[in-house]
Specification:
The complex is a heterodimer of chains A (about 650) and B (about 150). Chain A is of the alpha+beta class and about 650 residues long. Chain A contains 20 helices and eleven strands. In chain A, about 50% of the residues are buried. In chain B, a hairpin with a 5-residue loop joins β6 and β7. Chain B is an alpha+beta fold. A five-stranded mixed β-barrel of chain B has the order 2-4-5-7-6. Chain B contains three helices and seven strands. The radius of gyration of chain B is 23 Å and the shape is elongated. Classes of the chains: A alpha+beta (about 650), B alpha+beta (about 150). Chains A and B meet through α13, β1, α14, β2 and β8 of A and α1, β1 and α3 of B. β1 of chain A pairs antiparallel with β1 of chain B, so a sheet runs across the interface.
Chain lengths: ~650, ~150
């Protein structure tokens, strides 16, 4: 019965979200507390029923109820229990249910933590989030219910979860990503509420900042996890493919990054107000676009689930309503905001404006590269694909300029900085980064100009950030007191910016010094890559819980000393009749050794890919630092006292 | 004469216009350098596909056509849209889902001798999946045996 209860709870949640979209909004318009007070129970009720619905689906998975079509398509009685649970979001329907659940979770969080907000503003925020929930739950009920039954003859067993998704990275990657995607709905709701009330002031920016920062942190973590998962599970050692779905998550992240900086300027200096609102609208719209691109099946991608034109159309209409509606509102209201410009050419405002410019241009180029093939195809222009060279050609120069601007922005003050002061502050870090970048490049395998550039830019961030930090202690006697006195948001900013530098170092070195060989290896065959000596010792066959595997043993030595034994696998999942490559990695802070089995050849030989990946971990380390930075800013007590 | 304030504004607007024009121009240029057109094997057989240009071809792998070298990772196979087969040569590791009778997409260049020199072979991680390009190009061909 659980599926029917789940469907029923979903319908109830839909009814509650419809009320939530209407009643508090009406209350805010006529300024009646009675109507606005309805929001709270509606928010809690909506979350409760979505949670029940989600749990019902989980119950069906846990109890192998294969009469439920979604369970039958994504699970199997031999699937390990933890994957049965993560299979809830292993397909289109369940992941949308998770989307809706997370949305209502964010709404509950806003309700809980925003009691000190003006009642009308809070009511409007809740109502806007209710509207989004209406759209998504209706989408679930109309086109993608996970509770459909296969009756009267249910299959005896399920057709199993895609083996690629049977992995710890895939248990946490989608929820993290959705937390980010959906989290931007809060910033969006605040922006719309502010537009509705016509009060676009600095307090509005202060309220939406922590929500935006936390959503941004989650999204960054989701992208980092996705890259890490692709690296060891899917990509044969690649960590970013410019796959349309990766782009779909990168675009809201780029605009979200612009948004958190623009919000800072709006809060501190009261400028860029309309621009900030626009960014909030676009960050969420791009999240919706991301959902559309992934779910509609218009794109050729590993992420695209079975395509259904009805679904694509529905999300497209939803997207058009969101973007169209909010931009219309924006057009009517934003021109009422006028702020005198009170900053000079050399000021933090200007540099943050430049940062915003680079980030939005980058998001735009990614958007063009992702949608161009779709547009061309729709116009009958033939089938094309836009390759990574395009994205790299755009990404590297734009991001290089941005890291340059990042360092500059740390050295300047708000409003105005005198030219002489500025150049005096930045001279030392500039010299340091250029020189140490050069020295480090000379230590590398071979000299490359781009490596010097990349390392210098990264060190430029490191040195300006450190210089700024050290400068804070210029006139203090007690270092510890000062350390405690600095706000958490300052540490957050430092952490995030250092994260950018770490990622940049990782990208630079792994792109230029990786070594890769595809080779045929039989027992006893040997290969040398980057000081490491690999010897193929043969393969063994194992029978596991829900698959069989051929496991190879490859022993690695360096200068005659044993380093590690790597055991890459080729797995066979009998239920789906599918093959899976399980790479073996010897991870390290400065290099990864990566071995993957291709296909078996004659006489017990195998096709083997062996890779040496310097500094690849730094990509994800930097991502973690950025996420930590986002979380630290939210913990800042400046935001707590305003609740 | 324009007043200084207007003049300054004019310069700013000019800078924005030139800047965005340059950005759009560079983007389109980069895009045009890096798009890969898709051709069906029939189009290749009819000589519609250019040589020495990076293109994509797709089709079903012909049963019994896969020939592996015993010394290296060189492999040769045929793909077809059920009308005209095309010989593809590739050196490297084929994807897990590469199988005879399976739809694949190869990326690379058409050689003068009529074979396709692939530098990348793509198959999807879903056995029911067929790349839309192949599906469409199959639709335009009469059905037949391999």
């Amino acid at each position: 019965m659980s599926a029917e209860w789940g469907e029923f709870a979903l319908i109830l949640a839909f009814a509650l979200s419809t009320l939530l979209a209407i009643i508090p909004l009406y209350g805010a318009t006529v300024n009646q507390t009675l109507w606005m007070n309805y929001a709270k129970p509606l928010v809690y009720g909506q979350f409760l029923f979505l949670l029940i619905s989600f749990s019902c689906l989980g119950y069906a998975f846990a109890h192998d109820d294969f009469s439920v079509q979604y369970v039958a398509e994504h699970s199997n009685s031999h699937l390990p229990f933890v994957y049965k649970l993560s299979a809830i979001w292993g397909g289109h329907e369940g992941s949308l249910l998770l989307w809706a659940l997370i949305l209502s979770g964010w709404t509950v969080a806003v309700t809980l933590f925003s009691q000190s907000l003006p009642a009308t503003l809070l009511a409007r925020v809740q109502a806007v989030m209710g509207m989004i929930a209406v759209g998504f739950i209706l989408f679930l009920l109309e086109t993608s219910s996970p509770f459909l039954r296969l009756l009267p003859t249910p299959p005896e067993d399920g057709i199993d979860l895609n083996p690629l998704l049977q992995d710890v990275g895939l248990i946490i990657h989608p929820p993290m990503l959705y937390m980010g995607y959906v989290g931007f709905s809060v910033a969006f709701a605040f922006a719309i509420a502010a537009l509705l009330s016509g009060r676009l002031d600095t307090t509005w920016a202060r309220w939406s900042r922590p929500w935006t920062n936390i959503a941004w942190a989650f999204l960054g973590m989701g992208i980092t996890l996705g890259s890490w998962w692709a690296y060891y599970e899917l990509g044969w050692g690649g960590w970013w493919f410019w796959d349309p779905v990766e782009n779909a998550s990168l675009m809201p992240w780029l605009v979200g990054t612009a948004l958190i900086h623009s919000l800072a300027v709006t809060e501190k200096r009261g400028v860029f107000k309309s621009w900030t609102v626009l960014l909030a609208i676009f960050a969420f719209s791009l999240s919706l676009l991301g959902t559309f691109l992934v779910r509609s099946g218009v794109l050729t991608s590993v992420h695209a689930f079975a395509s259904d034109p009805k679904r694509g159309l529905f999300i497209l209409v939803l997207l058009a309503l969101t973007v169209g509606g909010s931009l219309t509102l924006y057009a009517f209201r934003a021109n009422t905001v006028h702020t005198p410009i009170n900053f000079s050419a050399i000021s933090r405002e200007t540099l943050l404006l430049i940062n915003n410019l680079f980030l939005t241009v980058m998001a735009l180029t990614v958007l063009i590269g992702t949608l161009y093939p779709l547009l061309l195809d729709a116009l009958g222009g033939g089938k094309i694909s836009v390759g990574p060279p395009y994205f790299n050609a755009m990404f590297v120069p734009i991001m290089s300029l941005m890291t340059l601007a990042l360092g500059f922005s740390i050295g300047v003050r708000w409003r105005d900085t005198r030219h002489e002061v500025w150049s005096k502050i930045l001279r030392l870090p500039a010299l340091f980064s250029l020189l140490s970048g050069l020295i480090l490049t000379l230590f590398c395998d071979h000299f490359e100009w781009l490596v010097w550039l990349g390392l210098s830019l990264s060190l430029w961030i490191v040195s300006t950030v450190s210089y700024d930090f050290v400068k804070k202690f210029a006139n203090t006697r007690s270092i510890f007191a000062k350390l405690r006195q600095l706000p958490l948001s300052y540490y957050g900013m430092m952490s995030a910016h250092l994260g950018v530098a770490i990622v940049a170092i990782g990208i630079t070195l792994v792109s230029h010094y990786s070594q890769e060989r595809d080779i045929r290896m039989a027992k006893g065959d040997q290969l040398d890559i980057a000081d490491y000596h690999f010897e193929f010792k043969g393969t063994q066959h194992f029978q596991r819980e829900n698959y069989q595997t051929e496991q190879a043993q490859i022993s690695v030595t360096k200068n005659g000393n044993w380093v590690t034994d790597l055991h890459p696998e080729k797995r066979h999942y009998p239920v789906k009749q599918s093959m899976m490559t399980e790479a073996a990695i010897d991870p390290g802070l400065f290099r990864d050794l990566y071995v993957a089995l291709g296909e078996p050849l004659e006489n017990g030989a195998w096709a083997v890919r062996i890779q040496y990946k310097p500094f690849v971990r730094w990509l994800w380390l930097g991502g973690i630092l950025m996420t930590a930075g986002g979380i630290l800013t939210v913990a800042d007590k400046r935001y707590r006292q305003h609740r | 004469m324009m007043n200084p304030k207007r003049q300054k504004r004019l310069y700013i607007i000019l800078a924005i216009v030139i800047g965005s024009a340059a950005a759009v121009g560079l983007t389109l240029y980069a895009l045009n350098q890096n798009i890969n057109l898709f051709y069906s094997t029939t189009q290749v057989a009819q000589g519609q596909a250019p040589q020495q240009t990076r293109i994509r071809v797709g089709g079903m792998v012909v049963k019994g056509s896969v020939k592996r070298s015993s010394q290296s990772l060189h492999v040769e196979f045929q793909i077809t849209d059920y009308a005209h087969p095309l010989t593809v040569e590739f050196t490297g590791i084929l994807p897990d889902l590469f199988r005879e009778g399976q739809g694949i997409i190869a990326q690379g260049q058409l050689a003068a001798n009529g074979t396709f020199q692939a530098d990348e072979v793509l198959a999807k991680h879903d056995e029911k999946y067929m790349p839309p390009e192949i599906k469409d190009s199959l639709k335009t061909q009469p059905k037949g045996g391999l």
